[in-house]
Amino acid sequence: MLYQLYEMNHAVVAPWRAAANASRALWNAPINPLAETYFGRAITAGLDVFERVTRRYGKPAFGIHQTEVEGKTVAVEEEVVWRKPFCELVHFKKKARVKQPKLLLVAPMSGHFATLLRGTVRTMLGDHDVYITDWVDAKQVPLSLGQFGLDDYVDYLIDILRVLGPDTAVMAVCQPSVPVLSAVSVMSDRGDPNAPAAMILMGGPIDTRRNPTEVNKLASQHDIEWFRSHVINAVPIGAPGFMREVYPGFLQLTGFMTMNLDRHISAHRDLFWHLVKGDGDSAEKHDEFYDEYLSVMDLTAEFYLETVERVFIKHQLPKGEMTHRGQPVRPEAITKTALMTVEGELDDISGVGQTEAAHDLCRNIPQERRQHHLQPGVGHYGVFNGSRFARQIAPRIKQFIRDNMPA
């Protein structure tokens, strides 16, 4: 019912948005003598902020068309090289003959689209042959195509790693750290020759009992039925996934926003004054960030609930109780895949020590093929994006991959 109310609210607001757009065009018109006055800019700014906060944001584009390789600009094109109902594997193909290590970026399936890692892709692309998991919005997947749970997620990763082959480095950003570690464990336990050469886990919830954050505490304070009754809704009529049970993107966004509500209110207030003052650069940077931040996707109910229960409530992986298709997941079976973990000192989603816990589980990886990096002064998003990632974290990851690739 909540999802239907959300859709009805959007429909009710639509005429007001249309009126705001029309009024904004009038006040921005060059022939309007008041357009460049303080009064005119204030009205235009107010209409602009109203339009942005009531807009329905779609899936953004990666928009990566070139990169620099050894000092030369090389054109890049996106191609889908593998596809299943809930995921596409996107390859950032360089239009040049260059041999580079293959890098699989596993984007989080936690509300935002894979384009949240656009900066990560750009940073790694010059030195690697980059692929990324582009997860599909659950409301776009017809119910007839089946369900998608945590075991399916692991199966997808195993399939992708087999497509890419053994000379691949896999980088999991946040939430996928658990399924990536599970997938590599299963492949290693089976003696699969396509197990990756290196695995980088970044800001992930391997063991949320360590230094628990507010997000972790929320999960521990409720049983799984509480989450089922409070956040799971059926996709309303009109979408391809009609009647599929999902954790809606708009509810996830509400959770993201309320964690730092004062900061978001302040940011939109600043946007208003930047527009009034004609500060185009600041307004543009604000728009770029929120175009991405406000673009959210639905998750299947089974994936969300299984992740909450198995990772955040029962802590199955660090307790040695995690299974895949009924078989034990054994990180100690990993012996040939190198392991690097990365954490942010100020991470308020995955606390310090939660990702590093992977080293205790993967006890049979040789010490010389392990590395842990704690980055001072960054929060959760700074672990995989931004200037400190590009200058201080990414070079370490690139070196780790070079050191652990087959000769």
Task: Provide a descriptive summary of the structure in words.
- This protein has helices at residues 2-28, 38-54, 118-125, 150-164, 177-189, 214-220, 224-231, 249-259, 261-277, 280-293, 301-313, 316-319, 358-361, 387-404; strands at 66-69, 72-84, 87-94, 102-106, 129-135, 168-173, 198-202, 233-234, 245-247, 299-300, 323-324, 327-328, 338-344, 370-375.
- With 407 residues, the protein is α/β, with parallel strands linked by helices.
- The strands form three sheets. A nine-stranded mixed sheet has the order 1-2-3-5-4-6-7-13-14, sandwiched between helices. A three-stranded antiparallel sheet has the order 8-9-10. The protein has a two-stranded antiparallel ribbon with strand order 11-12.
- Helix 9 runs antiparallel to helix 10 (280-293).
- The radius of gyration is 22 Å and the shape is globular.
Summarize this, please?
The protein is an alpha/beta fold and 407 residues long. The chain is built from 14 helices and 14 strands.
Key traits:
14 helices; 407 residues; alpha/beta; single chain; 14 strands
